[in-house]
Specification:
About 30% of the residues lie in helices and about 25% in strands. Strands 1, 2, 3, 4, 5, 6, 7, 8 and 9 form a 9-stranded mixed β-sheet that branches. The model has no long low-confidence stretch (mean pLDDT about 95). The protein has helices spanning about 20-30, 45-60, 110-125, 140-145; strands at about 5-10, 10-15, 65-70, 75-85, 95-100, 130-135, 150, 160, 170-175. The structure holds coenzyme A.
Amino acid sequence: MAEFVELTTPRLLLRQWKDGDLDRWAELNADPEVRRHFGSLLTRAESAGSLEAFRTELAERGWGWWAVQLRDGGRFLGFAGLDPVDEEAPVEGVEAGWRLHRDAWGHGYATEAARAVLRYGFQELALPEILALIAEGNTPSRAVAERLGMTYDPSADFDDPTLPPGPHRRTVVYRLRPSAG
Ligand SMILES: CC(C)(COP(=O)(O)OP(=O)(O)OC[C@H]1O[C@@H](n2cnc3c(N)ncnc32)[C@H](O)[C@@H]1OP(=O)(O)O)[C@@H](O)C(=O)NCCC(=O)NCCS
């Protein structure tokens, strides 16, 4: 079992998942606005399953999709983290990701959490590159990648076979190397 790592930023704590996160995690995944670019909503059971999978992965590997909470007051906001790109995607490597409850949008939390995640990926995991795979039309998420200094690679656009058929399958790829991070 890996030693579990917490990450802190001025306003946020990236930590292991707790059972008490489930209510807001399920609410977030059942919100059509949050899931707008995923093509489906998650049931509470599906959210519970993903929470458990993320918890196990963090415990075993020491890194993955961290739960994000406010340091001040402890409110659970969503997740940010790193994960190997799905095998079915035509690009390889480790991707960064972020997903927040709607009440946490518009405060810079996603970018702040992701900065800590990228630092961890480059400094502690010595990754040669970190990717972000984002639905083409997901302007807020693309803006996060751009604020992080990631570069859009138009040659890597693809249709994500793991998503339900439809326009949200079109996916764009952002890349970042440590020297630029
Ligand atoms: C993607 C997502 C996390 C982006 O959220 P976001 O709130 O737009 O991004 P940030 O947390 O970085 O916040 C940036 C905004 O906060 C504002 N802000 C307010 N206070 C701030 C502060 N103290 N510091 C920095 N930014 C601040 C910024 O000006 C910016 O607003 P703008 O977009 O109007 O310019 C959110 O839209 C989301 O969860 N979407 C659903 C899930 C999803 O699509 N995930 C990505 C899959 S690839």
